[in-house]
Design a protein that fits this description.
82% helix, globular
Length: 279
């Protein structure tokens, strides 16, 4: 159980970073694969998955600096990375979008993504996939401590977070992944009733404890990610997510990434249980 908890904390830390980039059914024509790939590419979702192993390695190196047991930490990171197949994850993401969006909906989303503001925002959000993102953001935040943003800027950032409901969507993604991992653990150890009871109790507790911290992280990261966007542009961006097509876009991308990552969560849990059985 101790190993399981440690792996959860690392997976959740990775998801918190990914969340910035992923913010990034009437009778109608089925979307083609070309349309779906175009949507995923321009939303930044494809790059998010492609760079996920690198992101995990970078975060693993940072966590290693404070790890009490370096060997155990290395073992944890090895499981996280070896259980991941980004090619499979991208195919699952494609399947999810194909199932949940029509051609007309995707074309409407692409109108926004192809706009000048849409392109600039996605470019800013995909900056979170760069290896030096965390370091640059920390330096930027250090500057904000000595030179705080104007109240209008704070209001604009929080206004975007609330309008887009990004925290709620990200919590759904994290809860789905953790629930998948818990279910896999219970299925692999059906005789361990205490484990099942403990996991069932822990899931809602973890989510309740995590949401305030995640929302704070979203706000702080947004200061850096959208640093070149004006308050008016942020208001326009938040306004997009209050429209029906914007809500559809947000839920579609988050659900597709969630569907892709759940397979990873199940595979990861199988390796964790296998390692525990060896010890």
């Amino acid at each position: 159980m101790k190993k399981i908890s440690a792996l959860f904390s690392r997976a959740i830390a990775v998801l918190s970073v990914i969340a910035i980039t992923i913010t990034t059914n009437a009778n109608a024509a089925t979307a083609s694969d070309a349309e779906i790939y175009d949507l995923l590419d321009k939303s930044g979702a494809t790059r998010t998955l492609e760079t996920l192993p690198m992101q995990m390695q970078m975060m693993g190196q940072q966590m290693a600096l404070t790890a009490k047991d370096p060997q155990a930490h290395q073992d944890y990171m090895s499981i996280l990375l070896s259980s991941m197949d980004t090619d499979v994850m991208q195919q699952r993401m494609l399947q999810s979008v194909r199932k949940n969006a029509t051609s007309e909906e995707i074309q409407a989303m692409l109108v926004w993504l192809n706009s000048d503001l849409g392109q600039r925002i996605v470019a800013a959000e995909t900056e979170a996939t760069n290896p030096d993102f965390q370091q640059n953001m920390m330096q930027f935040m250090a500057g904000l401590q000595s030179n705080p943003p104007a109240p209008e800027r704070t209001q604009a950032i929080i206004g975007y977070i609330e309008a887009s409901k990004i925290t709620d969507q990200t919590m759904k993604l994290i809860e789905s992944l953790v629930a998948t991992m818990f279910d896999a653990a219970k299925a692999l150890k059906p005789e361990d009733t205490q484990l099942a009871e403990t996991l069932d109790i822990q899931l809602p507790q973890m989510m309740d404890m995590m949401k305030p911290a995640l929302e704070q992280q979203m706000i702080l990261a947004s200061y850096y990610v959208y640093r070149d966007m004006s308050n008016e542009e942020l208001a326009q961006y938040g306004g997009f997510y209050q429209k029906e097509i914007g809500k559809k876009h947000m839920s579609l991308i988050v659900e597709s990434v969630s569907y892709a990552m759940n397979d990873w969560g199940e595979s990861m849990m199988k390796q964790i249980i296998a390692e525990e059985d060896k010890s």
